[in-house]
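Note to self: keep these together.
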Amino acid sequence: MATRLSGFETNQLVFLNQEKTVYTAGRGPAVIVIHEVPCITPQVITFAEKLVSNGFKVFMPSLLGKPGESLSLGNVSAAFAKLCISREFSILSANKSSPVVDWLRALAKKAHEECGGTGVGVVGMCFSGNFGLAMMLDSPVIAPVLSQPSLPIGPLASQQRGLHLSEAERHAVHEKIRNQGARILGLRFEGDFFCTSKRFQALQQEFGDAFEGIEISPDFARKGTGTPAHSVLTTHLIDEEGQPTHEALKRTINFLTKHLKG
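Structure:
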């Protein structure tokens, strides 16, 4: 962990009487990177470093697992077990966000106070994929990136189409689209069991042209990971010119640049 996170400052931040570790690096507009299962893996760190090199200040909270650990079946199983029992996450809920979003909104406010600019960007992944949408309520978030948004999880059609948003949060997204020019970027692999096509259809239906969805064939996912195609910006990224996942990475950076740097 020390080697991979040596370029990041470690901060113990307390909001709403809850303390969490947040890693920060860079200069420029604020982007909150919310890691996927199982933790802040080396691949998540690499993605954060790319944002730093493109002129953003990254705020990376640790919500699960041990930062810096590699992806493994054991780590994933332990993290998923915590997701299921923790009061901070509502993994089955289609019509309300996870309680941890309140803490993340407070982080967004602090990040904006520190960095200034037009607003804050958020990149959520997997279980945190939809958090950026919910964070648009009562916070300066204007540019959420939803990478393989996987909550809610469940067999019901309402869960597979669910956006993990309360009614107030949904209205806040529409208000920022109308009044602040906010936009939403979504990324997924076709055939992803956790982030279904139904969820992207629901996002398109709800937010219309304000939602840009990028869907990639699993044939273009990095092989040999031991897991099905899922993580567009990290585990299954092929970071080579011409590769669809590399183009999705570039689009993510361009999206954040446009909306946060004007």
